Amino acid sequence: xxTFVTAVVTGLRRSAFVFVVAAVAAVGSERMFWYWSTDLxxxxxxxLFYSIPxxxxxWAIDRYGVSSLWALWLATPLYALITEGxxxxxxxxGGPLVPIFPxxxxxxxxxxxxxxxxxxxxxxxxxxxTTAVAAASLGLGVFWGLWSTTLWLPENVEDPELIxxxxxxxxxxxxxxxxxxxxxxxxxxxxxxxxxxxxxPASFRPARWTIRLWCVLVLIVVAAWxxxxxxxxxxxxxxAWLHRWGLRRHERIAEGPNLLEQLxxxxxxxxxVAVATMAPAAAITYTACWQLEVPLEAVRAFMWSxxxxxxxxxxxxxxxxxxxxxxxxxxxxLTDPLASTLAQT
Length: 345
Hints:
Blueprint: H1 2-31, H2 40-63, H3 69-87, H4 100-126, H5 130-148, H6 154-157, H7 160-166, H8 175-199, H9 208-225, H10 232-253, H11 259-262, H12 269-273, H13 278-292, H14 296-324, H15 337-344
């Protein structure tokens, strides 16, 4: 009986952890991209869908001993691929031979939403780097505010996918509404990281049937998308196999604690509170652009330059991570020079 109760408690705690990670990651994946809704309830509903890509990514980190920043970029594209290849079919839009969307989403979803809002902030918070947390949050906030101005463009306000989901064109938020919106979802990020004190596990090994269920659900949905986009299924399998190949190469040389083990522990209060700087940075940036009446041509140029830069960065970093997978130093964990530099900025 005691074993059964322990198993149930462990399962509930693991599920709660996945849900909280999904809720925080979805802020980067959804709320920093579109302001679809100012309703917190809808965000928690979205987190249910994001729980599958989050669960698969966390499992990959544990299963393949992902212990360094470079190895992390082998796992986070899985989060991006499932998010934009299962929840929606957008990743297939560029065709099977042009990796524009996989590279862009590897950056936005994988490196910004999961790698930045979850792993990066967690590392800086645990390291007690209050100034670094504040600087990172300010930077994310400024980017959030700038990117949100791209929703003023007519082609985005009347985006067909958005209208199909919401039943109407996007309602542009004025500065006061956007400030409340940024505060709400920054608060969600802060609360999520606070809950990691109790929920963050030193390992993440769901039951085998859970992994199989995730895989079956993913493959069924991808197969369904193939009725609309014929190359969806082979394209998804090809990208998933590529990153699994890189993870298996990393697994052969990985030693020491993986990222989940490295980032387990209580959350220090002072650096956690510094996350709150994200909201005013986003609101001030958005308001400044609003008051200055930035021309739509400039906004459009910014949008496309950011998409190009992120696509190139996502492609280059992913390729570098795949090349380094089998020969990275086993001492290259979150305490490596790259992470140390990040922590001290």
